[in-house]
Design a protein that fits this description.
alpha/beta; Maf protein
């Protein structure tokens, strides 16, 4: 992920339009904030296919096609789960790119993961990336920062 990649939703939308790409999301800790960011721009229906808010662990399997054995082995917060969420969103919602996000917004840890642990993934037909972050701040600040970092990762993958 590059620090210079834009994270503002309007820039991301323009990039998706310019490249003729669509995106779909499967998000957990952000609870719909990532989908909201991607639909902020007028004309976003041309680039945003849809989003799955899969906050509960069982819904990650049922709606986003995350393998239950993976969830059983690693729990809901891992790089592999983020990648599976991205792949599931891409496939289920027929998008060029899938964006998956899972983590711990806090204030309490989940398993061995402290608050602020976030895993992001982007999946395309021939491209992709996974990122692990440890963010600081309040629950709200962690969620907002996770959205910004997810948009940066998306831009980084598109531009690579």
């Amino acid at each position: 992920m590059t620090a210079s990649a834009p994270s503002d939703p309007d820039s991301v939308h323009r990039l998706l339009v310019t490249r003729g790409l669509t995106v779909a999301v499967a998000e957990s800790l952000t609870g719909g904030l990532l989908s909201a960011a991607l639909t902020r721009s007028p004309g976003s229906s041309a680039t945003f296919r849809g989003g799955l808010v899969v906050y509960a662990t069982d819904l990650k399997a049922r709606l986003a096609d995350v393998a239950q054995p993976l969830l059983d082995a690693q729990g809901p917060v891992s790089a592999d789960v983020a990648q599976a969420l991205a792949n599931g969103a891409r496939r289920k919602l027929s998008a060029d790119l899938g964006l998956g996000i899972t983590g711990v917004a806090g204030p309490d840890p989940v398993g061995d993961h402290p608050a602020g642990t976030v895993f992001l993934a982007v999946a395309g037909a021939d491209t992709g990336a996974v990122s692990r972050l440890v963010l600081a701040g309040s629950r709200s600040e962690i969620r907002e920062a996770a959205v910004a970092e997810a948009l940066r990762l998306l831009v980084s993958v598109i531009c690579s």
